[in-house]
Specification:
This protein is mostly helical and 426 residues long. The protein contains 17 helices and two strands. The chain folds into four domains: 31-130, Cytochrome Bc1 Complex, Chain D, domain 2, CATH 1.10.760.10; 183-235, no CATH class; 251-372, no CATH class; 386-426, no CATH class.
Length: 426
């Protein structure tokens, strides 16, 4: 009996030990902080990766969850180039699998940071790939024909119309009986033989009415005046202007879904007068890698227009400059030459968002002129916008000038920005 109890205790301990190992194995990935990992992932990884689909780089959800060698993943994220140079078999395989596209080196990430990122990816992927409960999955659409409600509604309309027709017929019959009972006949106007009818008699009568003529002339004068004023006011006003561009660039995809910053493409908005139209080489920073990852067959017609303009062959990944030609973009926002507008003055100094003038570009399939861009519109904006002096070097200099004036000191033109290039050359 004692031997049996001893065997049972040893067996229980073994079972508990195995259960503990299984529990630890199940939560072997839970070594980092998913919250911190989410912040790091959004800051470092979202430009090239998503969890559930391939972008510039592969989809990371299933890939990282299936990979059990966290030491390799840590070294790969921190310095993948060093692993490739060291001929690490796994690293070389991954490098060749994605057409030898170089991944950014994150030497600033510690082992703990990488562990946090891996924990976030695995936790989030587990939530995304969880099996939906019965009845919560996507419903299968079955064509059952028109619903009973629609059929009954149509029948109700038909019955109601039939009742209305019966009532109207009853009313007409009653009226005819009353007319017959009172011997009332309807006299039809007949023209006398040989005598013409003046069909304009009513209009001639109105023309002789001086009050009516005055009213018509007054209304006509007001209408023409308003129409002329609106026409003059909207001269050279192109609000809503949306020309057909040679390449249909979807801002809602790039600035909206992909959340690419406006100044990544329009880099001049932060440092110069003009926002600048991005060169096609900026487009190829992403689309060259995307075409390599997905294959040239998935590239859309519009993306192939970029390839053709650059003389780029997605199959060979080479450029032929003899086939390159400029893209004839059509300008949308155009100010008269007499108006001076500086993007950097508004974006960098005034800290104005692009959407303030250009509207919700991140929602536009094709960009159009959102604001009227009139002098009145600009003046109203300048009246409503409060100046933010905090941590602003430009306005700090302006405030310094005011302080000098208060103290009665001399203020030179250079202190007022008189030696800035844009004061004379623009």
């Amino acid at each position: 009996m004692r031997s049996f109890s001893l065997i049972f205790k040893q067996f229980s301990r073994s079972v508990l030990l195995i259960a503990c190992f299984a529990f630890v194995g199940t939560y072997a990935y839970a070594q980092g902080d998913a919250v911190k990992g989410e912040a790091l992932f959004k800051a470092k990884c979202t430009a090239c990766h998503k969890l559930d689909q391939q972008v510039v780089g592969p989809a990371l959800g299933k890939l990282i969850t299936d990979e059990t060698d966290d030491k390799f993943l840590t070294k790969w994220i921190q310095n993948n180039q060093a692993l490739i140079a060291a001929k690490n078999p796994k690293a070389v395989t991954v490098f060749n699998q994605f057409n030898q596209a170089n991944m950014t080196v994150f030497a600033d990430l510690t082992d703990g940071d990488v562990a946090n990122i891996l924990t976030y990816v695995r936790t989030e992927w587990k939530k995304m790939s969880a099996t939906p409960a019965p009845g919560t999955g996507p419903a299968v659409v079955v064509d059952k024909g028109p619903s009973k409600i629609i059929i009954l509604s149509l029948l109700g309309v038909i019955v109601l119309a039939f009742i209305v027709i019966l009532v109207l017929n009853r009313v007409i019959t009653t009226l005819e009986r009353l007319l017959a009972k009172n011997n009332v006949t309807i006299l039809e106007e007949e023209a006398v033989a040989g005598e013409s009818v003046d069909r304009l008699a009513f209009l001639k009568k109105l023309a002789k009415n001086k009050k009516f003529v005055f009213f018509v002339l007054l209304c006509g004068t007001i209408f023409l005046g308003v129409y002329t004023f609106i026409g003059l006011w909207t001269t050279n006003l192109h609000q809503g202007y949306q020309p057909v561009q040679p390449i249909k660039f979807p801002h809602d995809l790039h600035a909206g879904a992909m959340k690419i910053d406006c100044q990544y493409c329009h880099s001049g908005a932060y440092k110069s007068k003009n926002a600048t139209i991005p060169s096609l080489n900026v487009c190829m920073n992403c689309h060259k890698v995307i075409s390599s990852a997905f294959g040239s067959k998935t590239a859309s017609v519009e993306i192939h227009k970029i390839y053709d303009a650059l003389g780029f062959d997605p199959a060979t990944q080479k450029y032929d400059t003899t086939k390159a030609h400029p893209v004839q973009w059509i300008r949308i926002h155009n100010l008269p030459d007499l108006a001076y507008f500086n993007h950097s003055q508004h974006v960098k100094v005034g800290k104005i968002k692009c959407q303030t003038c250009h509207g919700p570009v991140q929602e536009m399939k094709e960009v159009y002129q959102y604001s009227p861009l009139t002098m009145k519109w600009c003046i109203q904006c300048h009246k409503r916008t409060n100046v933010d002096f905090k941590d602003n070097a430009y306005y700090a200099n302006l405030q310094q000038v005011h302080d000098l004036l208060k103290d009665g000191k001399q203020v030179t033109a250079s202190l007022m920005g008189g030696i800035e290039c844009g004061k004379c050359h623009y």
